[in-house]
Write a structure and sequence with these properties.
The structure is a homodimer of 483-residue chains. The first copy, chain A, contains 16 helices and 18 strands. Chain A is an alpha+beta fold and 483 residues long. Chain A folds into four domains: 95 residues, Uridine Diphospho-n-acetylenolpyruvylglucosamine Reductase, domain 2, CATH 3.30.43; 119 residues, Uridine Diphospho-n-acetylenolpyruvylglucosamine Reductase, domain 3; 112 residues, 2-Layer Sandwich (Alpha-Beta Plaits), CATH 3.30.70.2190; 93 residues, 2-Layer Sandwich (Alpha-Beta Plaits). In chain A, helix 13 runs antiparallel to helix 14. Chains A, B: One of its GO terms (molecular function) is catalytic activity.
Chain lengths: 483, 483
Amino acid sequence: MPSEAVTSEALLAELKSIVGERYVLTDPVDTGGFLTDHRARYHGSALAVVRPGSTAEVAQLARTCAAAGTAIVPQGGNTGLCGGATPLEPRPTIVVRLDRMNRIRAISPAEETITVEAGCILQAIQGQAAAHGLLFPLSLGAEGSCQIGGNISTNAGGIAVLRYGNMRQLVLGLEVVLADGTVLDGLRRLRKDNAGYDLKQLFIGAEGTLGIVTAAVLKLFPAIRTRSIALMQVASVEDALALFARARAVFGERISSFEIIGSSYMDFVLRYVAGTVMPFAAKAPWYLLLEAGDSQPDAPLAAAMEGFLAEAFEAGLVSDAIIAASLAQEEAIWKLRHGVTGEFKLAGKTMSHDTSVPVAEQPDFVKRVEAGILAAYPDANVMMVGHIGDGNIHVVVLFPHERFATADDFEAASDAIDMIIDDVAMELGGSITAEHGVGRTYRKRLARTKNPDELALMRQIKALLDPDNRMNPGKLFLPATEA
Amino acid sequence: MPSEAVTSEALLAELKSIVGERYVLTDPVDTGGFLTDHRARYHGSALAVVRPGSTAEVAQLARTCAAAGTAIVPQGGNTGLCGGATPLEPRPTIVVRLDRMNRIRAISPAEETITVEAGCILQAIQGQAAAHGLLFPLSLGAEGSCQIGGNISTNAGGIAVLRYGNMRQLVLGLEVVLADGTVLDGLRRLRKDNAGYDLKQLFIGAEGTLGIVTAAVLKLFPAIRTRSIALMQVASVEDALALFARARAVFGERISSFEIIGSSYMDFVLRYVAGTVMPFAAKAPWYLLLEAGDSQPDAPLAAAMEGFLAEAFEAGLVSDAIIAASLAQEEAIWKLRHGVTGEFKLAGKTMSHDTSVPVAEQPDFVKRVEAGILAAYPDANVMMVGHIGDGNIHVVVLFPHERFATADDFEAASDAIDMIIDDVAMELGGSITAEHGVGRTYRKRLARTKNPDELALMRQIKALLDPDNRMNPGKLFLPATEA
């Protein structure tokens, strides 16, 4: 360990010589926002927050940190939900923010590819694609501030996974800086490449624990020129899946989103989210949001949606439904579904989950989870909302602000509820984290639920690529002593 | 190395006790077909060809071989084009054929998933999907005999990559037996799973060098119920790409294949492939095959195709075209495009390639490759055919049978032509092997062209998962002494 030889002062001087003095932040006024996670659950500390301007600078930072034994926490838009971008280990660490590396390096409509730096805001990439008559389909709540490097490092999901896959499926090429400063240049614009192991897959979803993603070549798609969005009231998750099968038969791959909203979540949204309006006369146990889209400007989607709903009514699968007739109505429907992390805090103490199970197991999952939580906490408000087309239902458990006397009491209840949900998920062949990743928040649950052979291989890969455990340490894995 | 301690006889007895005597083949009459590759370029030898009937048996075989220091070459349908399934190292080796493991373990129309064992024939999986009104989209020449384990291990491509991705994008879960016999059970039916590193990606496309794929969960899709296929005559690759852009605008994601056939390849097919007929009055420099499909039975694709072609004529991009009006005509068009490996041997000495470049670089690629080869070998017949929508044009160079006096002369010319093509591909940011993989055939070219940092990391991963180099040794990598 060479770290003893390098004082913090000397290291800071070196960092400054690499990126320029103004891009090495040490004043708490400047760094504070980058040392706390998006949900304000974690507060970390670092020698500095460093903002490199190029891949070469990132590589040089990595070499410098390797020589000094300093840890590196890469950070994109800092919108992650699991504390993955906050420096939390008690050791010399720098945060490497990629925000200055926000150039669109190239866009090729003929190839339907875009080459971007890690710090590009997701929305900017969507916009560039749209300006060329194309679509970059990744879409999620934080798209106005999250960065593509973070999306890649967390294998982001969102509302169009059903049609386009998650982030992993949208990456053609990747540039990564390894722990020792090697630049792994895999920025190929190829649709097919079987020349050896597909190394980029290692870094997608690795949450910065194996290297720093600095740039990527992404797939683009034909833009959606016709759209139809419906909101339905349904009696059960079983009926929702029956409707999903029917929708697949009618719309095929044109379905871009198939989302479910539970009754109590809907109540919550209507109460706390400004500007939301219940579009139905009565309540229902579940609400389904179906969006279909077509690249053809004259695709008869509206007629197809009417036909689909007419048959669904006739079959007794839907009790009421609306079809958006304007952009404003489309937005009003989506508003009922979209993220409300901020509002949760107003409503009380919440515990959010990101489970997935096989699509067909969701009725069982929902029933068992609700029953399990209510048996242990009869006063819990168990809300459900999510991507039923992907098997990914978010369970949000809400308690009144005053429910828990101490933070420890809250944590104990939170752990108990995690166990209830995780056990059901595991029995059904599910995952404790479908799209949010592991970060700091889920590492204990990962250690408890992951197949030991898989966890062992994960640790071996981590040790291979980051032998000194300097790349985003303390994330994904529990310390060996606790494992 | 414990191998000295175990005699061949003792090992064979142990193998027989695992899988049963009749499934350990040692008689050359029985093993011959499995020790020669599909193109009959490689002839290997093995202690035995072993046919396990279950994952547990594969795991036990792996443990036994680990203890004995015996190498394992996994083999599916033995239809690979790069010698990847032939045992070629001078050391104790067994071939593990997966053909008995051919059960469809489960199919879920509601989830659009199918769980299959590695030995399932691709066509059988396509058939099972179709029987449930669904589509398994992987499609390639050998689909009647290749096995899904081989498709996964080579990350197979084929004629529908443009729409559905290659094999990697069709795998949801994977079961793999590691070198030490550990069964890595990742057979999850999940659309989303961010619980740690996505380990299955390591084994997809690894050509059996990191473990033995024993089962997989695959994605299914809505069946195609309307189809339109056209064959066009075009003047240049530039025009072909202009037509691709127009086709994307008209058909969007409905395009499942966009294939190109060069003039001399067309001549070759018409001459050597029985039952092929030229559908046009005159010849053209290039032919384009466009297939569009829709899951809706009444999709107006025929009208769209007519409109597309009318505008293409008007723009001067197409000189003649036909639209298939029957299944027989569809098949007749595809016959002009499909694999003719057998016929190549009749026509002369051939050298086949599997290059990819970024889609927009293909005009440059085609021109430079043709000029380069003809400058060195003015008598070469340079034929081109491939997946222009994916940037993957196969260059096939044909010489008369008597052109080379000795096998060494042929090899020298073959190496020289490889260099010409590979250099152009590398300059254009391409890959020397788009879909066929590396196997034995391409390992020298891989070593020459692959970025050294990537190759070094590939070797580290190989060493991590297979420290004794017993899993399909001699594939992908050159021996360290030659590298």
